[in-house]
Amino acid sequence: MFKTVICDLLNIQYPIIQGGMAWVATSELAAAVSNAGGLGIIGCGNAPVDVIEKEIFKIKKMTSKPFGVNVMLLSPYVDEIMELLYREKVPVITTGAGNPGKYISKFKEIGTKVLPVVPSVALAKRMEKVGADALIVEGTEAGGHIGELTTMALVPQVVDSVNIPVIAAGGIADGRGFVAALALGAKGVQIGTRFVCTKECIAHENYKNMILKAGDRDAVVTGRVTGHPVRSIKNKLTKKFIKLEKEGTDKETIEKLGIGTLRNAVLNGDVENGSVMAGQISGLIKEIKTCKEVIEDIINEARKVKESL
Ligand code: TUI
Questions:
Q1: What pLDDT was estimated at residue 84?
Q2: Could you tell me the distance, in angstroms and rounded to a whole number, from the CA of residue 47 to the centre of ligand 1?
Q3: Where are the alpha helices (DSSP H) in the chain?
Q4: What does the pLDDT look like over 163-222, one tens digit per residue?
Q5: Are residues 46 and 179 in the same domain?
Q6: 95 alpha carbon – ligand 1 mean position (Å)
Q7: Do 39 and 178 have their domain in common?
Q8: Are residues 44 and 75 in the same domain?
Q9: Cystine design at 128: which of 47, 82, 162, 240 (Cβ 3.0–4.6 Å)?
Q10: Do 105 and 168 belong together in one domain?
Q11: Is Nucleotidyltransferase tagged as a keyword (predicted)?
């Protein structure tokens, strides 16, 4: 049950992909997700190529299952990272925060599957045209850098506009969300925030606790003026951002204020001055589990939900 074209495309047991969260999605998390039957993803964020090379080396020792790497297209190291992924014949690439069109044809030569994250129908159609293997359609409920449309509205519109498989992302953390995504026409899900609150995730315990404590309205958006809006848990930093934005502070000053803040929260546990990126579904997450438990719980709940409909 729940075997879809995504399982065949990516050679995985369950159509569940882990979000490629910068600093959070290390080889440890990705290997645990892949070993549990999903697709684990190493997140590059703004990390230089030698850091990612080490992570790929490590994951190859920790799992024999397929894995992926998420390339954040605003990174200054994008070209070098793409070269590394080509050399290492990484099985799957997901991309975020931009258009990966110019890289796709080269990866086709070596069978690497490329799955761009898209926030709109227009970009979805463009990505299909340039050869994307599937699309990750991410609603504004997601954590980190986000688009405008909700998962509920965006996923079926993209499903009706393209002929490649769609993976739904944003606001999904349990079996109900998984079944809902399939009902919208998606063939799989990408899950980020739920995997932060796992034993294998290396994020600081303060970061995980911030998500466990969060309520339904605590994941707020800042940085709209910069053109790169970000969703993170309300804290001293988000309040500072919101105040400066209200005062009409310029884009450059606001952008500068964000540099290094995600790393500070994830690694140092400074969850007041750091950026605790997480999605709207944070309020649903109440305990730390293993990645295997997270995936098994989703599938078991999804079975029950499907039967009850
Ligand atoms: O990429 C993400 N989430 C991220 S990236 C990130 S690191 C970062 N930090 C601060 C500022 C910016 C990035 C933290 N979280 N999700 C996937 C995603 N991609 N969401 C939205 C998009 C997107 C937006 C515009 C994808 C393509 C796009 O296209 C623009 C174009 O070129 O047409």
A1: 98
A2: 15
A3: 5-10, 27-35, 49-62, 78-87, 101-109, 121-129, 151-159, 175-183, 193-196, 205-213, 236-246, 251-258, 261-268, 291-308
A4: 999 999 999 999 999 999 999 999 999 999 999 999 999 999 999 999 999 999 999 999
A5: yes
A6: 8
A7: yes
A8: yes
A9: 162
A10: yes
A11: no
